[in-house]
């Protein structure tokens, strides 16, 4: 980048769903100094290793700087004309469901908004899905079942105020490090605070845990159904709350059946005494927050897991009050913003329902759109199957790398190779997915683009540009609008910039909800470009006329009921404890192992950014398979050996790491490495694509594999 004038810009981290505020100061030598923003209410100046290394990832080497057509440089007009023409021709010949967008939680809310508007209102299909389907779709589905809307009840502050924090399928220390730091500081200040970790692995997060339950993969439904039965038998139900604010308690209790502690121990692979310790702690502690992440969501039982957890909070009335509540922590920087604009195949903008005719009418009228998608589109896994079998003939992938990150990644590669027309927008020159692009479009990167993101506690923060656009790179919103214009929708996509898009998004939220549903940021409508630029981090809801927060005056939902089902009550969801799919996923064949995939501390997704930082790459330099010593000995594998991990779908070569932190019978391999890395290790090629029947989220953490010496 040419050296810009030196001034400090407040922005938001490019990585995880914590959404930390960052101070970025470009220096005359072209470098950028990065510091935590002491005034941002998510992090109060803290940053983790990834955030603090952001300045090391801004170089232009390896950047995509020009549009290309089959790898040959072309100009923007030619590329955009061709994209618009191929989409229009496919729609004319095969109908709107023959095209699709596969987008990303890396997109800013404004990018997401226009992509969703183009597909649902102007193409007339709901075939827009996102890599957030791999991240938190089960939490969305669980929230909608329980609360009647996709509402995260609590805030980060609740973790600091709780007397017990239960962490389920969450390696908070590595995956949401600043929230972990906040929890650790709170625990140090109040040593009586307890933490329980429920995870097959003894991760670094166990360092803060008073109790670690090394549960079998996918045992969570049984554990929390058993907890519900235990709460009942130990007289810990808040019957007043249940009667006043919920429905379905009896059915949920019946589904939990006669699960006693011995039965739970058998179903989860846990020690019965540890199960009892956890249950008793939960039963006697009023202020409980249950934090859950990908170990819950990335499962073929993900939605039931979410509801099994929420059931226990509803039964005890521990929701929406300081230090209490179920809390889904999202993976990506803008997974929540994507949900707000309806950037998923089964949602409409502003948290409205695509199945609801009234909601569809509101959106269509507001957009003055010629049509509106009237049924859910294809979710991520289904979408690539439809590409493979020819139902989808034209696909545009924005800001994501599905040939590395999707389950059955080789199948996804084959589908894209056979697809008649693939468009990929990305910031980098090479990814495994870009190999299949007919048209590649250079997108603006973090630090070059302006917009908003929403973090896990519903806080909308600005990402601000502090570097000029390099080469011919352009923001995603601009690229989408230029294609829309060429498809004949110029009037609806002629925005002056992200401020105008955000304003429309805010006005739609008010129009849609009239203040009566959860997502309403009508109070943020009408900001001019300067006010938008200056916008401070803000939690939603922010209805017109309200100073801040929900009607009860603080930033938590459901302090005294007020759920979004028509009768205002929450729903208990009966969960089937012994569902066959759970057992199929959780048990390996004799001698085989269960593969669990996840993140390492210092890398992000497919490493296109963090791989640029030598400091981050020094933490863990290559992909590895973490095995329990007994399994390693049985397989004749020693520390640092090379091993091949094999499933019926593929194989990957990785380094062996022998560790007592690993549950016997299981193997952990990180998900970051790709075909672009000399070391290989593209593990999602091995993972099956079975999905949760409600959310469509694939189970990425319970694949049967064999491991042997390479
Ligand atoms: Fe960025 Fe997440 Fe680290 Fe905060 S915790 S600095 S948002 S990666």
From TrEMBL:
Residues 6-62 form the 4Fe-4S Mo/W bis-MGD-type domain. Its cofactor is [4Fe-4S] cluster; Mo-bis(molybdopterin guanine dinucleotide). GO terms for biological process: cellular respiration; nitrate assimilation. Keywords: 4Fe-4S, Iron, Iron-sulfur, Metal-binding, Molybdenum, Nitrate assimilation, Oxidoreductase. GO terms for cellular component: membrane; oxidoreductase complex. Coiled coil: none annotated. GO terms for molecular function: 4 iron, 4 sulfur cluster binding; metal ion binding; molybdopterin cofactor binding; oxidoreductase activity. Belongs to the prokaryotic molybdopterin-containing oxidoreductase family. NasA/NapA/NarB subfamily. This is Nitrate reductase. The lineage of its organism: Bacteria, Pseudomonadati, Pseudomonadota, Alphaproteobacteria, Hyphomicrobiales.
């Amino acid at each position: 980048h040419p050296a810009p004038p030196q001034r400090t810009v407040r922005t938001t981290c490019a990585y995880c769903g914590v959404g930390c505020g960052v101070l970025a100061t470009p220096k005359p030598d072209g470098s950028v100094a990065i510091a935590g923003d002491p005034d941002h209410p998510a992090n109060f100046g803290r940053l983790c290793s990834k955030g603090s290394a952001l300045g090391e990832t801004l170089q232009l080497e390896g950047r995509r700087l020009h549009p290309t057509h089959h790898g040959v440089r072309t100009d923007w007009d030619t590329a955009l004309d061709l994209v618009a023409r191929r989409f229009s021709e496919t729609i004319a010949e095969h109908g709107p469901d023959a095209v699709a967008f596969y987008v990303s939680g890396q997109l800013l809310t404004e990018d997401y908004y226009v992509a969703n508007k183009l597909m649902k209102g102007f193409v007339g299909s709901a075939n827009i899905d996102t890599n957030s389907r791999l991240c938190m779709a089960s939490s969305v589905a669980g929230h909608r079942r329980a609360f009647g809307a996709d509402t995260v009840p609590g805030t980060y502050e609740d973790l600091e105020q709780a007397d017990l924090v239960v962490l389920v399928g969450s390696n908070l220390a590595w995956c949401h490090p600043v929230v972990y730091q906040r929890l650790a500081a709170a625990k140090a200040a109040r040593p009586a605070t307890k933490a329980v970790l429920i995870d097959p692995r003894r991760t670094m997060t166990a360092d803060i845990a008073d109790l670690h339950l090394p549960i079998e993969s996918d045992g969570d439904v049984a554990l929390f159904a058993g907890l519900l039965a235990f709460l009942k038998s130990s007289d810990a139900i808040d019957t007043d709350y249940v009667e006043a604010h919920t429905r379905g308690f009896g059915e949920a209790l019946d589904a939990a059946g006669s699960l006693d502690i011995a039965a739970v121990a058998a179903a989860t692979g846990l020690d019965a005494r540890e199960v009892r310790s956890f249950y008793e702690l939960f039963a006697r502690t009023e202020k409980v927050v249950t934090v859950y992440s990908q170990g819950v969501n990335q499962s073929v039982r993900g939605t039931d897991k979410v509801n099994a957890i929420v059931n226990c909070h509803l039964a005890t009335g521990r929701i929406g009050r300081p230090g209490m509540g179920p809390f889904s922590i999202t993976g990506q920087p803008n997974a929540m913003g994507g949900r707000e604009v309806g950037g998923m195949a089964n949602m409409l903008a502003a948290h409205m329902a695509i199945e609801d005719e009234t909601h569809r009418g509101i959106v269509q009228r507001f957009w003055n759109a010629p049509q509106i998608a009237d049924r859910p589109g294809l979710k991520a896994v289904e979408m690539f199957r439809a590409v493979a079998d020819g139902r989808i003939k034209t696909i545009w992938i924005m800001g994501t790398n599905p040939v590395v990150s999707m389950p059955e990644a080789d199948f996804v590669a084959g589908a894209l190779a056979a697809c008649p027309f693939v468009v990929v927008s990305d910031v980098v020159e090479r990814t495994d997915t870009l190999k299949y692009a007919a048209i590649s479009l250079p997108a603006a990167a973090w630090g070059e683009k302006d917009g908003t993101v929403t973090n896990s506690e519903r806080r909308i923060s600005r990402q601000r540009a502090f570097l000029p656009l390099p080469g011919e790179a352009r923001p995603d919103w601009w690229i989408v609008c230029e294609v829309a214009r060429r498809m004949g929708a110029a009037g609806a996509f002629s925005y002056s910039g992200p401020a105008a898009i955000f304003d429309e998004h805010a006005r739609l939220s008010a129009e849609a909800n009239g203040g009566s549903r959860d997502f309403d940021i009508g109070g943020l409508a009408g900001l001019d470009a300067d006010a938008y630029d200056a916008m401070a981090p803000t939690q939603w809801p922010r209805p017109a006329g309200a100073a801040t927060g929900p009607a009860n005056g603080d930033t938590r939902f459901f302090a005294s009921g007020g759920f979004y089902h028509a009768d205002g009550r929450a729903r208990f969801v009966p969960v089937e404890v012994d569902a066959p799919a759970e057992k199929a996923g959780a048990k390996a064949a004799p001698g085989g192992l269960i593969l669990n995939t996840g993140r390492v501390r210092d890398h992000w997704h497919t490493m296109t950014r963090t791989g640029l930082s030598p400091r981050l790459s020094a933490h863990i330099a290559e992909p590895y398979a973490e095995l329990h010593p007994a399994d390693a000995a049985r397989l004749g594998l020693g520390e640092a050996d090379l091993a091949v991990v094999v499933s019926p779908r593929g194989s990957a070569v990785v380094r062996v790491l022998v560790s007592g932190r690993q549950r016997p019978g299981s193997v952990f391999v990180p998900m970051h490495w790709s075909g672009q890395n000399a070391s290989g290790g593209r593990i999602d090629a091995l993972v099956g694509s079975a999905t949760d029947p409600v959310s469509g989220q694939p189970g990425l953490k319970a694949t049967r594999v064999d491991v042997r010496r390479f």
